[in-house]
Design brief:
The chain has about 230 residues and is mainly α. Helix content is about 65%, strand content about 0%. The protein starts with a helix and ends with a helix.
Length: about 230
């Protein structure tokens, strides 16, 4: 992270500046410096950086922390209504994340339905269950999201992007497992990340924090059905 900062200070007009700064945000998240992650997101990412901003905010929300500056929901829906919003499955997935940050379960359900009617396989077979699972999480039904995401397996790579995007889906699955009352399964899911990385504070928070900042509740948990928190 320090190396990236020094590089960009020498070349402040670097065309990849915001993308590299986003990676610095991810590094701050990994190290557990959440204030720095929010600061970097707010100062380095523009309003047009909907995908990078959504990825940052979604990860913060999953560990029960306040997000950085949010993207306006009306703007997200405008992007989805434009042809460019559906030109590449990767970008549509980013908009699905933005809807998740906003807690727009209905918007995610509509996105999943549209993806299911798409003739392109990544949309119909991968984006559909991912968007459906995100809708279930934001609606407070983590158990149903678990079933959808577990069935996907390695097919999430067909959404494009890099490892970060696939790990964001894994983050959602881990949070859904914890909220559905299966913390041991969540720990097993993230075991490799926790044991093979120098910085894994984020994963530890994902497994232990209650998501107080999330705009939904874990209705599928047995203790929730009994009236517990």
């Amino acid at each position: 992270m320090a190396m990236v900062g020094r590089w960009l200070s020498v070349d402040p007009r670097n065309l990849q500046r915001r993308h590299l700064r986003w990676h610095a945000v991810l590094q701050s998240l990994a190290a557990g410096d959440l204030d720095d992650a929010r600061r970097r997101a707010d100062t380095e990412l523009h309003d047009s950086d909907v995908g990078m901003r959504a990825a940052t905010d979604w990860r913060l929300l999953l560990i029960g922390k306040a997000p950085a500056r949010l993207t306006d929901l009306a703007h997200i829906h405008c992007l989805l209504a434009e042809p460019g919003g559906w030109a590449q499955v990767f970008h549509t997935f980013q908009l699905a994340l933005a809807l998740s940050v906003a807690g727009d379960s209905d918007g995610l359900t509509a996105l999943a339905a549209r993806a299911a009617r798409d003739s392109r396989p990544p949309y119909a077979t991968v984006l559909t269950p991912v968007a459906d699972a995100l809708a279930r999480i934001t609606a407070g039904h983590p158990g149903k999201a678990v079933d959808l995401l577990l069935r996907l397996g390695d097919r999430t790579e067909h959404l494009g992007g890099v490892r970060v995007e696939r790990e964001i889906i894994q983050d959602a699955l881990a949070r859904a497992l914890v909220d559905a009352g299966h913390p041991d399964r969540a720990a097993h899911l993230l075991h490799h990340r926790v044991t093979s990385r120098r910085h894994h504070t984020y994963e530890e928070l994902l497994l232990t924090q209650q998501p107080a900042a999330l705009p939904w509740r874990c209705r599928d948990r047995p203790d929730c059905r009994r009236g517990g928190g």
